[in-house]
Structure formats: C-alpha cells, structure tokens
C-alpha cells in the first residue's frame, strides 16, 4: 500500500515536470533580442536608415549612379567607368533596396490590419503613416526601376501569401502604378495630425511636408514620363495644385546623428576608411566652366557662364580646372595626374 502511494507521488511529480518542461520548450527558441512584432515607428526609422546607407555610399552611388551620370570618375580602378560592373555588388544592392521596399510595405500593413493598427496608432495617425511609407517606397522604387528597368513590384512582399518567386513587371506598368500610389497617398494625408511621433528622421513626423514630398515626387516621375505618357502635364498640374516644395526647407533630407558612429557612408568611405577613389570628370568640369562639349560638339544653355560651384566641387592646378576624361583605362590614369590629389 505504501509503495503504491510512493509511485503515485512519483508519477504526479513526473507529470508536473513534463508540463513545466513543455512550457520551457515553448519559449526556448524565442530570441529576446529579435522581437516577433516591431512597432511601425521603429520599422520606419530602420527602413529610412538602411535605405540611405544603401543608396548614398561609395558603391551604389559612387561606382554606379554618379559614374554613369559622368559627374565624377574613379582615380584607381576604372572598370565601372567603362561599364564593367562587379556583379556581386550589383546583386547585393538589388537585394538591399528590395529589403527597404518590403519594410516600408510592412509599415503600411501594420497600419491597415485591424488587429495591429490600433496599437500602432499610438505612434502617429494611421492614415499619415501609411501615406509616408508609400511615398518613400515610391521614391525608392523609382530608383530601382530607373537603375534596372523591368523589375519585380506587384508581387514584392507577398511571401506570407505564398508568393515565393516575384514576377517582373514592365517599367511602364511600374511607373503607372507609382503615379497612382502617390496620388492616393497624398490625398489620404490628414495634415492636422502627425505622421510619426518619433522615428521619422526625414521630416520629424510633419505630415504637411510628407504631402509636399509626395506631390514633388509626382512631378519628377511625370517628367520621366513626358515622352511616353500624354497625361504627364496633368500629373504635374494635380501635384502643383495640391502643394509642392517651395524652398529648401521642404527638402526630404535624412538627418544623421552628429555624434557616435551614425554617419553618411560617403563620409565613412573618405574620412574613416581613408579612401580617395573619385575625382570630378572633365565632362562636368567643362559644363561648370561654361565650355561647349568638346567630345560630341554640342552646345548647352550655360555656354560662357562659369558656375560658382566649380570651386566647391574641385580645386585648380596651376590656375586651371581640368577634370579627368571619363572612361580612361586604369593603366592610363597615372599619365592623367598632374601631380596633385585634386584635378
């Protein structure tokens, strides 16, 4: 009889241990440093920071955008100047910018879902959070499609819906969608309420400025469409009537911290890493000097007008501003150097 009671207590203790163990197993793989749910204002803050870091750096802007615009050239390794892209970097930036798109879409989703929008309304009006996230996403998608042409868009961010492989959309379809999204976003803004109580490093939650940004961006996209869409002037008229930028105070500028390690990647490349890879191109220098295009024999509206920014962009050598010819092979760069770090 005594043995039965002992077995009963042992069995009861074992069952209690199993229940406790199961409860422990439920939480064992939960990482306290990576929360399952992120508030919308923190997600917006992280998206803004990562997007600016990924775009304005020595790779995407430095060795692609600013090179292909012929604003500057590379001093040492000129492969990108001659369109020999490093595919690893190209693919890396493609992935990184789409992570930004996905994060901004998540901000929209958190403010639209009935189960989450109530909690996230504490961080700013739902309608304004949605509008700000869409406006920034449109700006980012404009850069993506201008860079790579026909790219995924309508299927992006639908992994939870079972979309594993995004289809590629034609650029004309993407641009039409971007114009429509901007119009809807701007019209949905409530200027009497803040967009974000914190986390917005671009406008500090100012809904009115987000509205101006959206309208001004609409004008920019409309100009891009001017040769293919007969409605482009209508888009501009709508935007201007709704309110666009009127001064530099309206500009959409991401404000890095003035202390710590939070600084622009261009700054990090030059001052922290000690790199000196780029210099002004002859193409841009000639325009700033008011000279005609010697390479292609073309004139421009600024002929014989010296741009005052020339002295800010570069320094003279023996009293002359020259710049480096665009696309010179790496082995020829040493012969183009007049003996000073600045051309």
Fold topology:
Blueprint: H1 2-28, H2 40-55, H3 61-68, E1 72-74, H4 87-112, H5 117-120, H6 126-148, E2 151-152, E3 168-169, H7 171-187, H8 207-224, H9 232-242, H10 265-272, E4 278-280, H11 282-288, H12 310-313, H13 333-336
Antiparallel strand pairs: 1-4, 2-3
Helix pairs in contact: 2-4, 2-6, 4-6, 6-7, 6-8, 7-8, 8-9
Q: Count the strands?
A: 4
Helix content: 40-55%
Give the N-terminus to C-terminus distance in angstroms: 100 Å
Q: What's the pLDDT, averaged over the residues?
A: 87
Proportion of beta-strand residues: under 5%
> How many H/I helical runs?
13
- Give me the side-by-side strand order of the main sheet: 1-4
Q: Which radius of gyration do the C-alpha atoms yield? A: 27 Å
Give start-end ranges of low-pLDDT stretches. Answer: 339-343
Overall shape: it is globular
Given helix and strand content, the structural type is: mainly alpha
* SSE string: HHHEHHHEEHHHHEHHH
* Biggest beta sheet summary: 2 strands, antiparallel
Gist?
This protein has 13 helices and 4 strands. The chain is mainly alpha-helical.
Name the features.
single chain, 343 residues, mainly alpha, two-stranded antiparallel ribbon, 50% helix, disordered C terminus
Structure report:
With 343 residues, the protein is mainly α. 50% of the residues lie in helices and 3% in strands. The chain is built from 13 helices and four strands. It has a two-stranded antiparallel sheet. Helix 6 packs antiparallel against helix 7 (171-187). The radius of gyration is 27 Å and the shape is globular. It starts with a helix and ends in a 7-residue tail after the last helix. The model is unreliable at 339-343 (pLDDT under 50).
């Amino acid at each position: 009889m005594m043995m039965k009671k002992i077995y009963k207590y042992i069995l009861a203790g074992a069952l209690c241990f199993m229940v406790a163990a199961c409860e422990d197993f439920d939480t064992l793989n939960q990482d306290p440093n990576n929360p399952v749910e992120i508030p919308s204002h923190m997600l917006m803050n992280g998206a803004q920071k990562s997007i600016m870091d990924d775009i304005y750096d020595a790779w995407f802007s430095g060795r692609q955008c600013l090179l292909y615009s012929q604003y500057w050239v590379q001093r040492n390794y000129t492969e990108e100047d001659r369109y020999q892209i490093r595919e690893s970097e190209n693919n890396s930036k493609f992935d990184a910018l789409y992570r930004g798109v996905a994060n901004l879409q998540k901000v929209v989703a958190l403010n639209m879902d009935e189960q989450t929008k109530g909690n996230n309304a504490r961080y700013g009006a739902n309608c304004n959070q949605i509008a700000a996230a869409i406006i920034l996403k449109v700006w980012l998608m404009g850069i993506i499609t201008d860079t790579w042409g026909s790219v995924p868009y309508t299927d992006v961010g639908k992994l939870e819906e079972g979309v594993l492989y995004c289809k590629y959309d034609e650029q004309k379809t993407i641009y039409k969608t971007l114009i429509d999204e901007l119009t809807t976003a701007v019209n949905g803004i409530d200027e009497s309420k803040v967009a974000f109580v914190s986390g917005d490093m671009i406008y500090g939650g100012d809904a009115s400025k987000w509205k101006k940004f959206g309208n001004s961006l609409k004008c920019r996209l409309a100009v891009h469409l001017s040769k293919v869409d007969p409605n482009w002037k209508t888009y501009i008229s709508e935007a201007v009537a709704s309110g666009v930028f009127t001064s530099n105070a309206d500009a959409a500028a991401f404000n890095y911290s003035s202390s710590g390690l939070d600084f622009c990647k261009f700054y990090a490349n030059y001052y922290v890493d000690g790199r000196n890879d780029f210099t002004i191109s002859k193409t841009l220098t000639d325009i700033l000097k008011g000279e005609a295009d010697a390479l292609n024999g073309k004139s421009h509206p600024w002929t014989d007008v010296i741009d005052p920014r020339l002295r800010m962009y570069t320094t003279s050598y023996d009293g002359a501003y020259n710049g480096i010819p665009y696309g010179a092979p790496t082995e020829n760069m040493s012969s183009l150097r007049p003996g000073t770090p600045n051309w």
